[in-house]
């Protein structure tokens, strides 16, 4: 199986891109889904972060109180890094388990993991190929303000807290520019998909 990482900054349109890859027959996993799975009640992941951040991050029913945890870590960069450091091994192990399952049922298929911080964490090195989704900065800003109902300053703060788009693009095997709407983006996705199929066929 060809293992493909897909990444890009906030608000660049990764969800649309992964949905088209799925339509084309690729196996697709959103890393956010894995991140939620590894902190379900009674998981080692939840136990580990409760030990680090205290019982106050739990709801009365034992589930994670995301709002409470968010308030703790987003106010303090070192605690946010600590959280990522604790959860990352659990997330990667779960993703690898899912990819092994895909490979068993579809050895010649394409497996795509979509994760926002793949380059920053070094996680991209586990993949055969890396796709970076990007768009023009003004398009990114507008999309993010609309999507999350943010002011211009709030949206800029979120964008600026991430690695710059141009920096991410340097790591890419394939680039997909979503600036000019769905149809032009879809054409690029189909083109990248065809190239991935050629890689599998060797």
Write the layout of secondary structure elements.
Layout: E1 2-7, H1 14-23, E2 27-30, H2 31-37, H3 44-53, H4 66-74, H5 77-105, E3 110-114, H6 118-121, E4 129-134, H7 137-148, H8 152-160, H9 165-169, E5 174-177, H10 182-201
Helix pairs in contact: 1-10, 2-5, 3-5, 7-8
Keywords:
5-stranded parallel sheet; 202 residues; Rossmann fold; 2 domains
Written overview of the protein:
The protein folds into 2 domains: 1-26 and 109-202, Rossmann fold; 31-107, Rossmann fold (3-Layer(aba) Sandwich). Helices cover 57% and strands 12% of the residues. The two termini are 12 Å apart. The mean pLDDT is 94. It has 202 residues and is an alpha/beta fold. A 5-stranded parallel beta sheet has the order 2-3-1-4-5, sandwiched between helices. It has helices spanning 14-23, 31-37, 44-53, 66-74, 77-105, 118-121, 137-148, 152-160, 165-169, 182-201; strands spanning 2-7, 27-30, 110-114, 129-134, 174-177.
């Amino acid at each position: 199986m060809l293992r493909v990482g897909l990444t890009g900054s906030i608000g660049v349109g990764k969800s649309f891109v992964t949905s088209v890859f799925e339509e084309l027959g690729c196996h697709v996993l959103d890393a956010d889904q894995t991140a939620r799975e590894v902190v379900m009640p009674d998981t080692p992941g939840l136990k580990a972060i409760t030990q680090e951040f205290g019982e106050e991050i739990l709801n009365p029913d034992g589930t994670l109180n995301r709002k409470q945890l968010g308030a703790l870590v987003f106010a303090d960069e070192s605690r946010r890094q600590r959280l990522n450091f604790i959860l990352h091994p659990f997330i990667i192990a779960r993703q690898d388990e899912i990819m092994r399952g895909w490979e068993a049922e579809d050895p010649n298929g394409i497996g795509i993991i979509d994760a926002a911080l793949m380059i920053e964490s070094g996680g991209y090195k586990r993949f055969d190929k890396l796709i970076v989704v990007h768009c023009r900065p003004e398009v990114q800003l507008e999309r993010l303000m609309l999507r999350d109902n943010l002011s211009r300053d709030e949206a800029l703060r979120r964008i600026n807290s991430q690695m710059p788009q141009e920096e991410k693009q340097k790591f890419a095997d394939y680039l997909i520019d979503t600036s000019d709407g769905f149809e032009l983006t879809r054409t690029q996705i189909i083109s990248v998909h065809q190239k991935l199929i050629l890689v599998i066929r060797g």
